[in-house]
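User
New here, help please:
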Amino acid sequence: MARRLLEIWKAILDLDEVGARDDFFEQGGDSLAATALMAEIELAFGVKLPISMLLEAPTIAQLTDRVLAAIGKTEPPLLIPIEPGGDRTPIFFVHGLHGQVLFTRHLRGQLDEGRPLFGLQGRTGPRPGGEAETVAEIAADYVAAVRAARPGSRLILAGYCAGTLIAWEMARQLTELGEPPEAVIGIDPPVLLQGDVGGPTNAPEGAYGSPLAFRDEARLLITSAAQQHADPMIVGRGDDAVERAVDRAERMRLILNRYRPEPWAGKVAFICSAPRVKRLREPSNPWRTILARSIRLYAVGDGHLELFRDRGQRVAQALKRYLKELEL
């Protein structure tokens, strides 16, 4: 963690060398830099710290202690700023089955200049008033977070994998509130809509949807987080962290598989791996029963886990192409 904080610190202050006990303000830090630093810490570690904490802990050594103390003791915020600045139509990305928005980090700096980006991550603990049992409840929480952050703003919703269903429900709820999104974008969404989120629950061991496949995906996420020294959702390393991630994904899968999406009249685009594009083009695909207009399809890779292995370049290119077509 200290190494990751050091990298953030150096980038914010544009310094080549920093010591663990160097004072942030004595190194040129000001209120603007402090705001940027805390935003990066929130994105990297999933904890929201007040800017005033820098007055109490102005060194990397001291701030590391504060971040460690905060992790696991407070529920990370639902809304994570990825690139919050800009005056173009913002995009809100909804997490996939594992509840984290780590993939959005790959899109930073790759979309249009002035395009605000936000991530919506899943809760690690119980929902206030009881754990969410329906997609409608989860979507309502996320809609409230979005409206609080950007009241009355035009926006675009994008869901990653199973998160497309949550984004879809958010779009319906926002439309009922008189604030329809400009578009919904699905990034490799489920193909069959009902009962296939994450694969069949009775899948043979090692096949898509089996416990072994869930563990492999969780290990991939945790390894990626370790390489970036950050993960806003999965805190910890090793087998315990993998099991927690698998349990979280399994719980989310059961919730999503009970969801029955209803038609929505807005603009829709899917950015998918090639096999899913082929299936989505089939005349019998169930998505066609809830789409009010034709869908835009963009093929960007050969498999689900391949989408972001080029640091999101192909996904970013498809996003830019669609936004240009929409003139947003």
Notes: The CA atoms of residues 47 and 158 lie 23 Å apart. The chain is about 40% helix and 10% strand.
